[in-house]
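Q: Structure for this?
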Amino acid sequence: MTNNTVSSTGRVLGAGLRALLVLTLVCGVLYPLAVTGAAQALFSDRANGSEIKDANGRVVGSSLIGQRYDLPLKEGEESPAPDLKWFQPRPSNGLGTNSVNTQPSLLVSGATNRSGDNEELIRWVKDAKAAVVKDNSTATYRVNPTDIPPDAVTSSASGLDPHISPAYAGLQVHRVAEKNGLDVKKVEDLVKDHTTGRLLGFMGEPRVNVLELNTALRDLTGK
Amino acid sequence: MSPQAAGLLQLTALIVALALAYRPLGDHMAKVYSSEKHYAPEKWIYKVIGANPAAEMRWPAYLRGVLAFSAVSVLFLYLLQRMQGSLPGSLGFSSIDPDQAFNTAASFVANTNWQSYSGEQAMGHVVQTGGLAVQNFLSAAVGMAVAVALVRGFARSRTGELGNFWADLVRGTVRILLPISVIGALVLVACGAIQNFSGIHQVGQFMGGTQEWNGGAVASQEAIKELGTNGGGYFNANSAHPFENPNPLSNLFEIFLILLIPFALTRTFGRMVGSLKQGYAILGAMAVIWIGFTALMMWTEFAHRGPAFEIAGGAMEGKETRFGIAGSSIFAVATTLTSTGAVNSFHSSYTGFGGGITLLGMQLGEIAPGGVGSGLYGMLIMAVIAVFIAGLMVGRTPEYLGKKIGTRQIKLAACYILVTPVLVLGFTAVAMALPTPADSMTNSGAHGFSEILYAYTSGANNNGSAFAGLGADTQWFNTTIGIAMLLGRFVPMVFVLALAGSLAEQKPVPETAGTLRTDKPLYAGLLVGTILIITGLTYFPALALGPLAEGLAS
């Protein structure tokens, strides 16, 4: 009886192991290789990260991955100040750097995971709101705090959100125009050209890709 | 168009797409699990396994197959992670520590995909693609196999035979999951998801300097991660990461993949028991809960109650611009009413009530529509309980699908529904009573308690999402959540298969005028009521301490 049980348990475990190995070959080797082959043949740009280049042909990042547009860190500062010449992305307080396998310096995507009643989050939102008013108000244009859209003062889920809402881009137009010596109307048109609406009119939310917008802005100013 | 209206249209589009796929996929799956024909590649696989796919198994043999295959899988995945440091194709990443490797192995084999690691900095190509993604297929196929065995228990009479586990495992993988995944992965790449085997490489930045990424077989893993209701992200931000979920179309498509098989399995069930209407009643109960939860979630997230959200003017913390409130809310409900646990927005930063809806969704037992396979068998267990309660009301021996629900059957069903509450409430109570687990909390007060309640709810119900403020990479959480995931997956399967065996042995009871009509809307309503009351009675005190307290205070 005992011998029988042991040998039948051994048999079924052996069958399980063989099943795992052969299905690993199918699902873990053949499947990903076939998909990679087809993806590289059909959509190689997208399969490799949707990189975009500026007018000089230099890669400036991926259209899908958000970046920071900051001035170099000055002495005595905890975090670098934003470079107000460029359109600014959403806050990314949840974005991390790698804490294990630290040879490369990888971006580690993530959110803040703070709840609505978290004191730290309340402070971040308040500070961000004050900064949006201060940074974007010019001699002729005053930002009204109630006009600030929520995406401008909250961190995204990935910390790599490449987009901002058209409302947040609109708030930045006067400042960007002033800092670059451009006509407000011209910058407004640039934002309009880079605004993506809802797909088929109902999927997702209207948005502006910050990297694409700033790349076009740089082409315009020739800097 | 207002964001609310756009959200309702997205939900409508999703319902239409699911409805279009329902019949062909449900019928196809019924054929897959009933056909006598074996294709040539399958015959070769059976030969390697050394199994005769035509040999019928009684429930103990079927269970032995499930448990042996899963045990070997846990061990294999554990060793793969422990050896990562010396495997080629691992991006130079080091081996995973024993407690985290155990947690991850248990997690992926149990169809949970709880992750106490961050994918992009911990797992190389070999472990992700050859280990984790493989279990995304196989754990899903095991779930479907157990569900089909239970359906056969209802469909068959005067036999104890439930089919052949190896045949069900292989067919589910090869004929259902693989073909849909290939198409799904290519759709995702077309949207912008990456699919390559690049190492860690530098990419130029607008302001100068570079950023460093790793490549990977992301789209192929993303497709099966959603389709198999697994949820383990290639990257830490999961389906919020633009390389996993690049645009609003990929977002709706991923939600579609999550819900596709669980809903269609009700058609498979109807076909196999010989009455499509029985399947529609189950489908109706699932759909009512899913749509109701989605509507509630949109309402509370658009209302954005909570101090930080009120100052910000909207609950956009932890949500992506391209998805917005609606696209995030629909995803959050789909992922927690199934055993998926993928996220495109971070549940910890939802409103108090919104977080409560994700918790309650899992606590229902993930049956509306639930995980692939596990959703159907979980719902059928509740269906058995519902006919039992109806039987008590009228004083008749309950029957379901022509089978008597006697003492043995109701005991097995009752044991099934006790497993996860015992694990969730037991582990939560112990973690709260001990001095150190609370150190892992990011938030304090009611939300801090919710972080721990969420962790064990997610683990024991095999969901895998998190209130991710909880720093779960500690020996305590890696070990206890690992145990909760394994027990929460495999102990219920024992009761399901035992129930299937006892049903298959019975001879059918002829239908009479007094038989409860389980193919009518009235019964679907009774089923929904039973589910809500049982879950409510079990979890209300715990929910009152966490999300309800937070929601009412704001």
